[in-house]
Design brief:
Elements (H helix, E strand, L loop, with lengths): L2 E4 L19 E2 L2 E2 H10 L4 E8 L4 H8 L8 E5 L4 H9 L7 E4 L9 H14 L1 E7 L4 E5 L2 E6 L5 E10 H14 L6 H6 L6 E4 L11 H16 L1
Parallel strand pairs: 1-4, 1-6, 4-5, 7-11
Antiparallel strand pairs: 2-3, 6-10, 7-10, 8-9
The protein binds cytidine-5'-triphosphate and magnesium ion.
Cytidine-5'-triphosphate (CTP) binds next to α3.
Amino acid sequence: ADYDVIIPAAGSGKRMGAGMNKLFLEVNKRPLIAYTAEVFLKDPHCRKVILPVQPHDIENMKHVLGNMPNVEKIFFAEGGSERQYSVRNGLELAEKGGVILVHDGARPFISAKIISELANVAAEKGAAIAAVPVKDTIKRAKNHIVTETIERSSLWQVQTPQAFRAPLLKQAHETAERDGFLGTDEASLVERIGHIVHIVMGSYDNIKITTPEDLYFAEAIFKKLAGKK
Ligand code: CTP
Ligand code: MG
């Protein structure tokens, strides 16, 4: 299915501690945001690439993305103080019908195959997210005392992209805003208005670059994927 993608890119990268937006940090001498944007710019099913960006980053973003293929598909929106607000600002530039994907700027290793599966499932069923089975044992604890071991076979580690029919995503955002609800992903906003969310198998390569050691993993994943081309 054809879709618009919103790529929130307006964070400040506090946990990375680089003193700037981490999306400008480089893997194999190329900024992270260039990898992320390129996958969508090259996808013929992608109509618009909407980038919420902080005003102080706009110039650098334009510089970094300026000579990418199909650059005319890029639209900049204003970044918000929270990720959810950045996505909301991006929504205003998206088509009113069809499918909308939301994908973190900080996940540069997303594959075209997962994108296409998400867009198709969302077109058919309304909402689909990428996720992978949890590998670690996860426990709940209070004051460093374990209170519960959570049955691992039912746990999924959620990623982006997350894909939705446009009117559903808009309704979910409007309801969250009205209720003062702040979620860490779009699906949580859709779940709370009672709509089913389908899971599509993501990839363990599709990491979010969050803390400094993630850059080492990113170099390794880049090498592996480059070797496959
Ligand atoms: N993001 C955004 N607007 C915000 C906060 C985050 O568009 N107000 C974007 C980031 O640029 C990133 C994605 O949302 O691509 C996921 O957020 P995260 O990994 O938390 O990035 P940062 O918020 O930049 O990092 P940190 O939380 O460590 O400050
Ligand atoms: Mg953040």
